[in-house]
Amino acid sequence: MGRSSRRGIRTADTTPEAFRRSMSAYRHGQLAAATVAHRRYRHDPLTVAVTGAGGLVGTALTALLTTGGHQVVRLVRRAAEAPGERTWQPEEPAADLLAGVDAVVHLAAAPLTGRSREAVRDSRIGPTRALAELAARTPGGPKVFVSASAVAYYGPGRGDELFDEESGRGQGFLADVVAGWEAAAASELRVVLVRTGLVLSPRGGLLRAQYPLFAAGLGGPMGSGRQWMPWIGVDDLADVYLRAVTDTVLSGPVNAASPEPVRNAEYASTLASVLGRPARPEVPPFGPHLLLGEDGRSELAIADQHVAPRRLLELGHEFRHPRLPDALGHLLGAVTVGEPA
User: Fold this and answer.
1) Contact by Cβ (8 Å): 91, 127
2) What single-letter DSSP state applies at residue 201?
3) Partner of 12 for a Cys bridge, out of 18, 105, 115, 336, CB 3.0 to 4.6 A?
4) How distant is the alpha carbon of residue 5 from its chain centre?
5) Residue 146: helix, strand or coil by DSSP?
6) HSE-up of 24 (CA within 13 Å, CB side)?
7) 112: closest CA among 198, 190, 19, 171?
8) pLDDT (tens digit, 9 = 90+) per residue, 307-324?
């Protein structure tokens, strides 16, 4: 139950009991949704090798896989220490790295923001090619190679033009990188390229960067506010990867974005409303640059990409939270105003 400040702004109840109730409801909802997902994509137990398993998406995905009875092999770039880990050399993976593995999910790559262009490119193309080639030549090895990709393939500044998986690539640095990244994953195996939108989670990415500003009542639209945002909640994204691993019908590029995209101004007002805070008319032009760097500002924060998950919808895919208010309410259900995300 919320309470009102003297200014009439509704804030979350931050008492320990309220926080425990919120966390309990969140965890119960997560378990119930995971159970539904596994019933929908039922499959005999698989052994799934995952790079980037400790990252934002990898953490959600590995938790989902294990709750469904699948075994996860974490490919790590350090010496393997824990059970289920194998040491992975990205440029020259060991010949037996994928022995006994049924599927590979390749998530590891340098963030698209805050790194040099060389690091962004080099962390994707060479390691992806080496791992895909190894998967294809491993005797009795993986039957599917699922690689992360990005809607940046369609390029920034595309306005109201609607893009699906049949649309051509756009222009720009990230579009070039993504095209090379996807080409590197080519293999005689079944290959799924998960073209991901802006992943929403309070534990990382854009939402984590924005949370303190919006919680303080200082957040607002970036740029003109008219640009389209191809967003997806992290739990829905984990479901897409689960389907990519288990559904043999799915192959090629798949747009992993909500079927109900919003413009940036609507996103900002919705996030502010969920947090019980006002939204500023606009964020100063230097705000996105400070949060995300120049490439992140121009090709992510104000990229303006109107993307449709046509392939998933054709297959009858059901999103857990297709509407932004529901997604943000769910994602922030375990976070109270004044508490760290």
Assistant:
1) yes
2) B
3) 336
4) 35
5) strand
6) 6
7) 198
8) 999 999 999 999 999 999
